[in-house]
Amino acid sequence: MKIGFIGSGNVGQTLGRVLIEKGHEVKLGAREPAKLTNWKQSLGNSELASVGTYREAAEHGELVINATPGVVSLEVLQSVGREALAGKILIDVALPLAFENGELRLSSPPNGSLGEQIQHAFPETKVVKTLNTVTSALMVNPLHLAEGQHDMFIGGNDADAKNEVAAYLRQWFGWRNIVDLGDISSARATEGLLLLSSRIYGAFGHSNFNLKVVH
Ligand SMILES: NC(=O)c1ccc[n+]([C@@H]2O[C@H](COP(=O)([O-])OP(=O)(O)OC[C@H]3O[C@@H](n4cnc5c(N)ncnc54)[C@H](OP(=O)(O)O)[C@@H]3O)[C@@H](O)[C@H]2O)c1
């Protein structure tokens, strides 16, 4: 499958690497694509790996992943344009976070979420919010923790798109427990988990943790 990343930092490079190893054609979109020479080289200059502008990555992808900082995601996606994303699934892993007086806070609007803002701005795109609640190393390797017995949340308005993405999370990365939280307004809940995660990070001193819902 052709997969395009809008954003080529930690998440883009980590997920991109694993997807290339699985045989997918990955294009990382970057502000300065030339900066990704090392990433390509580290993959043995695989023919499956390419880099480009954000728009080129979006056009390349049959499926597109937003991996930009949440505070700029909407602006970046708007610069890519609706056409390049129309009809496609957009997995949104971004966290809308900002710091105010040294305190972390959500930058999404009150009673709203970045996921909803993106879906509203791109009505022809199927936005699926997922993977945003764990660190990138766990996104691609859930089995590394508690034998994979912990939960990944997923939300979005299009049921088929969510099922498709859930199947990818199982196939690509080995996720076992995927909890469908409903429509894209569920992004309010999963983006809000950032406030809890940052405190857990403070308590444990590392990010190798996740939530498991016991019921
Ligand atoms: N890292 C994690 O473990 C993790 C976990 C859960 C969710 N997330 C979320 O996933 C998203 C990506 O995280 P990351 O760790 O990959 O971030 P990152 O390493 O900081 O990479 C961010 C990417 O966005 C680009 N970017 C930064 N500012 C920009 C701007 N003003 N305009 C356009 N592009 C800009 C960067 O480009 P340059 O390379 O040119 O700076 C880079 O390609 C974030 O929303 C983050 O909150 C991350």
**Widest sheet: strand ordering:** 3-2-1-4-5-8-9-10
Instruction: Please write the string of helix (H) and strand (E) elements.
Output: EHEHEHEHHEEEHEHEHEH
Number of DSSP strand runs: 10
Shape: globular
Helix fraction by DSSP (H/I, runs of at least 4): 25-40%
Largest sheet geometry: 8 strands, mixed
Whole-number mean pLDDT: 97
Euclidean distance between termini CA atoms? 36 Å
Strand content: 15-25%
The set of bound ligands, ions and cofactors reads: NADP nicotinamide-adenine-dinucleotide phosphate
Number of helices: 9
Structural class per helix/strand content? alpha/beta
List unreliable stretches of 5+ residues.
Answer: none
Rg over alpha carbons? 16 Å
Description:
By secondary structure, this protein is α/β, with parallel strands linked by helices. Helices cover 40% and strands 21% of the residues. The chain is built from nine helices and ten strands. It has helices spanning 10-21, 37-42, 54-60, 70-80, 82-85, 114-121, 136-139, 159-173, 187-204; strands at 2-6, 25-29, 49-52, 63-66, 89-92, 97-100, 103-106, 126-130, 151-156, 177-180. Strands 3-2-1-4-5-8-9-10 form an eight-stranded mixed beta sheet, with helices on both faces. Strands 6-7 form a two-stranded antiparallel sheet. A hairpin with a 2-residue loop joins strand 6 (97-100) and strand 7. The radius of gyration is 16 Å and the shape is globular. It starts with a strand and ends in an 11-residue tail after the last helix. NADP nicotinamide-adenine-dinucleotide phosphate (NAP) binds at residues 7-12, 30-32, 67-70, 72, 76, 93-95, 132, 135-136.
